[in-house]
Amino acid sequence: MTTTDPETQVGQELLRFPPDFVWGAATAAFQIEGATGIDGRGPSIWDTFAATPGKVLGGDTGEPACDHYHRYAADVGLMADLGLGAYRFSLAWPRIQPTGAGRVEPRGLAFYDRLVDELLEYGIQPVATLYHWDLPQALEDHGGWRNRDTAYRFAEYAALTHAHLADRVQLWTTLNEPWCSAFLGYGNGVHAPGVVDPRAALEAAHHLMLGHGLALRAMRSSAPADHRFSIVLNFCSTWADRDDEAHRVAVRKVDGLQNRLFLDPLGGRGYPADVVEDTAWLGDWQRVVRDGDPEVIASPIDWMGVNYYSPTRIAPAPADHVTEGPFAGLRGVTVLPPRGELTGFGWEVDARAFTELLERLGRDVAVPLVITENGSAFPDVLRDGEVVDADRTRYLIDHLRAVHTAIARGVDVRGYFAWSLLDNFEWAAGYSQRFGIVHVDFGTQVRTVKHSGHTLGRVISRNGVPAGGYEPV
């Protein structure tokens, strides 16, 4: 898979990807669509959260975001200019079912009709995510993902949405990052709905996974043979400074809560016994697991979506030390500060962790992998009509090399979706962090392709990444 390409610098090697490798970019509905109060859309937990003082940096909200609801056609044109072969987007549940159950809003479905048709017109494959965190507020009013009934409402929504778009969309994802929905939303409360209760996070995690399995079964029952279904997980690649028993235990605990809590039940192994033991001090959260749930959750998927951004460094702590930060519910672990080069979000940049993660998943997951999110936030500057984002370009190239290394070592990776197509509303960080390969002026809504976007376009056109160095645009 290594060759010399005449378009690269003289003698420079090009690391080629498999001939059918899928190249794309990803977004999420609440982060880009705007139009939160029109055409019958109901409020989501993120509308409520963002409207609560002090929850989102700068008091930012999802309005107007990137106004993608009105500007989708131009955005699809940008995708075509970049050479994207696929586009991963999420459908807004409250735009389709304003209260999360019952009545369907035809204007919401019509928007996704227009978007999908525009993508197909340009030959871009639509990849639909059913849930990217924007739970209808009406369901949260009844307990949200702490309430088992939400899993059944999600399956109903999945079935009707799939039925509507099944003639044009073949690739489907149920949930995006259920760990974030559960532990950031219900564990430490830094995301919507802002609940601080580690036990509730574990219960929400189970209902999310139950919802995934129920939705998968509902869609498969009427799906054409060429449809492929998945779930997208954000994985933690955990590093410790020492390889001794105490550090290995700390790594095991973090790996259990973020990775194996989801991987094991998906693989038919149920919830890991060590995670159940580690979290038993919170109370019997497994009381929400009913007979038959494990079999539903283990319903077969066709591919696994992998979201990766940075490694996590940890160390052991006293046994009764309650871990702060995102790993709500753990004891005996300290999350260490990141080191070396950092993104604008303060996340550590080290692509070696990406290869390690993919190799681990290649051993542990029985289906092909697709990189559904990978990217970096930096404080970009638009100057003279250009955004020279050298840091993001280096991050992109290094992480594509990491993916190539994993493939060369036998890992079955089928595609790569950059996060994100557009600068957007970055959840609790508001508009302060820019992940896009396309710059958005949120005042004028003018789009400008960044140098990283041009670089990705060149990688796509060659189906390969330079083996060394970072090409100038």
UniProtKB/TrEMBL annotation:
Catalytic function, reaction form: Hydrolysis of terminal, non-reducing beta-D-glucosyl residues with release of beta-D-glucose
One Pfam assignment: Glyco_hydro_1
EC number: 3.2.1.21
BP GO terms, sorted: cellulose catabolic process
Gene3D superfamilies in UniProt: Glycosidases
Active site: 177, 373
Identification of the protein by name: Beta-glucosidase
Biological source species: Saccharothrix tamanrassetensis
Upper taxonomic lineage: Bacteria, Bacillati, Actinomycetota, Actinomycetes, Pseudonocardiales
